[in-house]
Amino acid sequence: MLFASGVKALVAYPGVNAEIDPVALDQIFTYWSPLPGASAFRGIREVPPGHFLTHSAGETAVKRYWDLTFTALIKALPPGEFREIVAASNFKQRTRMAMLYYHAELNNYAVAGTANKNEQDMGFFVKYGDGGVDVKPIEHLYKTQVYQLAEFLDVPEKIRSRRPLPIPTARLPPSRTSSSGFLSKPWTCCAMRRKTRFRPPKQAG
Prior knowledge:
Helices cover 33% and strands 6% of the residues. By secondary structure, the chain is mostly helical. The chain has two domains: 7-64, no CATH class; 79-191, HUPs (Rossmann fold), CATH 3.40.50.620. Strands 1-2 form a two-stranded antiparallel ribbon. It is globular, with a radius of gyration of 21 Å.
């Protein structure tokens, strides 16, 4: 095991390769940094803030040593601060889309979006960010129909049942995810918003 205060010292050690981790790279363009414990390099981990690491008898453990408890207060942000947070959050989405189009054009590819019907109807996307794509193959499907399609296509259960990550935006509190927001509503309920009559499609299979 090697330990250093920065990645630069680690990669200078013989045998340590500075190989970019594609999963961490995706997290950087999404959240502005890798998730706690990860780094931008494959095989190199970081000790999360407020934690310490011990290594003894061949076993490694990471434990928390600091935890603050705050009294829950609900207070609206001043308009200027709120706009700054929204602008910074949307900037992340647009930066990621610029990177996707860079590689797409290098390889003569098209960029496909992942927005579903719930997100399209309610505007739950960033203009020129995740909403700026060439095609939207599932924009006609409600969230629950996307899960039905995944089951029909034999997408592994581990992926279908994975808990969504917190949404990195000012639109919802940090503890909220897309599934705990409006996407938890039944798609039949969402269809009632329309004036036109809607008949639920038959399940695939």
